[in-house]
What we know:
Helix content: under 10%
Strand content: over 45%
Number of helices: 1
CATH class: Mainly Beta
Number of strands: 7
Structural class: mainly beta
CATH superfamily: Calycin beta-barrel core domain
Amino acid sequence: MSNFPSDIFTEPQGYSVNTLEQLGPLTGMAGIWEGIRGLDIKPKAEGPKKQAYVERIELQPIDPQTNGPQLFYGLRYHAHITKPDQIKTYHDQVGYWLWEPATDNIIHTLTIPRGMITMASGKAAADAKQFIKSFFRLRLQNSGVPY
């Protein structure tokens, strides 16, 4: 783990701009992936409903991102899911997978077109081949959102 400067304004210097070589534990995720045997089981009043689906996800490297002393390498992604033999979207999501080498933090952001966003985080060493992400829920006072 690197030391951060004592102020929040100093940006990293001399870092690699080759994202594919710097993705750490996200390296194996880069590319285009397709799955043809997905199964969604969703709760219904009359009991769980099973729905087969087909999934395509593209994870493309982005330029290194700095935020004051922070440096992130990452992948922008788009996941598109349909029911077999249909064109209509069953599920769609976009977001980023980010890795911060100085802290070993992984951040996953996602947005779906029903007005929902999520961010998850975890830690993984640069050479990790698997990791676990965790979700947490923030409660907004007076937001009008039922809990």
